[in-house]
Write a structure and sequence with these properties.
Length: about 350
């Protein structure tokens, strides 16, 4: 038998493209956290590539979300004729073997979708649900509880947690799929590096405390921004007037009317990423340079707070929108930083 025809022992460590100790250790720890067998990849997009290779759907129902995922889908369209459907397409447009790719919370806004309703829609047609749960790592959301067939993460974000790791992860509770994914990875070649895996193990030791502090910080900051933005009849020159003079809208799962499903799906917090929309494009473009605690950078999930004028990375979004990733700093320092920045913009 060839290597492709026989099951490979992921702990044999006979060849580095097959397995090595550090990635294996990283995957074992993640498997316990994700409640499914975890397979690591060189990036989040490599993980999506592997998932679509495994399932080989004819149609994929997908929303806006991360533009990189649409790039992977475009590659499959060239190779296999894969057709995109809208995320809210009628169920009867799906066929057996098709895929719904659901990103929740959503990049860049941080708003959420009801996983169970999409699982029911997919399974009613014999289709599969892939949930990209990057913005809600373990402790915040377990998509398997709500019917996900595959769970995907860009591990570069919260699993890495220190802005120094590039990796992706798939998790499944299907034994045949996990075996096939492992075998496919040998020939896709998208393996996670030894150093990245070692850094990943380091980071998983603090995952829970990091994410919980980031969520708490984000919740307090979002509440302040939203309350201040909607304060009626602000006194000229007050904090409320300054914020309302520059800020147009705040987006986050905690601000949406999700009903009971949202609290059940995310019982411990709604994620440390949110977006703000400024009143004018020039204000959005200038805001990052006025902040002191926030670095202007496109990644997220690290211990430092970041802000990004999102159009620099994704031309499809509103040019007035900025994505914010909250770190471990004192939330009041972050609030005061936003306030002084708004004041500087309104001079």
């Amino acid at each position: 038998m060839t290597t492709a025809q026989t099951e490979i022992d992921p702990t044999s460590h006979i060849y580095s493209r097959i397995s090595t100790p550090n990635p294996t250790r990283f995957e074992i720890i993640l498997s316990s956290l994700l409640n499914g067998t975890a397979i690591s990849y060189s990036s989040g997009l490599s993980a999506l590539h592997a998932a679509l290779t495994l399932l080989n759907p004819r149609h994929i129902s997908v929303g806006e979300g991360y533009h990189g995922c649409h790039g992977v889908i475009a590659l499959f369209t060239r190779l296999t004729g894969l057709q995109k459907l809208a995320l809210d397409c009628p169920a009867d447009q799906l066929e057996a073997g098709d895929v719904i790719l659901l990103e929740t919370p959503l990049n860049p806004k941080g708003t959420a979708y009801d996983i169970a309703s999409f699982a029911q829609k997919a399974h009613s047609r014999g289709a599969y649900l892939i949930v990209d749960s990057t913005f809600a790592p373990p402790g915040l959301q377990d998509p398997f509880l709500w019917g996900a067939d595959l769970v995907m993460h860009s591990g570069s974000k919260y699993f890495g947690g220190h802005s120094d790791v590039l990796c992706g992860v798939l998790a499944t509770q299907n034994k045949e799929w996990s075996t096939q994914l492992f075998q496919d990875r040998v020939f896709l070649g998208s393996v996670m590096g030894n150093m990245e895996s070692w850094l990943g193990v380091r980071s998983l030791r603090t995952l829970e405390v990091r994410v919980q502090r980031q969520c708490d910080n984000a919740a307090k900051l979002i509440q302040w921004l939203d309350t201040t933005l909607h304060s009626p009849n602000p006194v000229p020159g007050s904090d409320e007037a300054v914020v309302q003079g520059a800020l147009g809208e705040v987006f986050h799962a905690s601000l949406q009317d999700g009903g009971d499903w949202l609290k059940k799906q995310m019982p411990n917090g709604f994620g440390p990423v949110f977006s703000i929309c400024m009143k004018e494009e020039e204000l959005a473009k200038a805001l990052p340079s006025k902040l002191h605690y926030f670095q202007h950078a496109t990644s997220l999930g690290g211990v430092e707070s970041l802000i990004e004028w999102r159009t620099l990375s994704d031309a499809s979004v509103d040019r007035k929108l900025l994505r914010v990733s909250i770190g471990l700093e004192n939330w009041e320092d972050l609030r005061n930083d936003f306030l002084q920045a708004f004041k500087s913009l309104c001079k």
